[in-house]
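Page 42, continued from yesterday. The earlier attempt failed because a stray header line got pasted into the input along with the sequence. Redoing it now with the clean sequence only.
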Amino acid sequence: LRDITLVVHDLGGPIGLSYAIEHPENVRRIVIMNTFMWSLRGEREFELPGKMFNNALGRFAYKRLNFSPTVMIRSAWGDKNNLTKEFHRHYIHALPTPSERQGTWVFLQALIGSSDWYQSLWDRRENLRGKPALILWGMKDIAFKEKELDRWTELFPEAQVVRFPEAGHFLQDEEGEEIARIVERFLKS
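This time it went through. Structure tokens are written below.
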């Protein structure tokens, strides 16, 4: 692939941006939404969920009771009134069996467990500098807050930054139409 516009969110940040770091010549521009690319070790808000679910009871709740989309997603939504039952159902039914939830449970553990790898990416962030970037940020995200946004704006000082004051972690679902318009303009610029 060449001339890629890379769009990253959540754990897709370090995953996708690792490609951009290794192959900067293939990535033309980057769209960043509520994500990270550095060690989260020592960050209580990221360590706590991993610890909470890294035991028998936590695994049972996460995998058997589908705890993350059933319960946790409400706190990640900016305006809970906009999380309709129908929309919520899509999240709940996305991974209907415990075995299908294994991957997301592993991702949760990787928030801290892969800290060395995340930090190695941040240490090579210069490979991304100068890329045109668009940063879209849900300001009511319970995980990725203003301090994470500040790290991105430091790396991409020329980036267009759009803050969504009423959106949470899943801003692409909460502000989808507006985000589509903004990304389309970014692609044409």
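Notes: The chain is about 50% helix and 15% strand.
Reminder to self: strip header lines before submitting.
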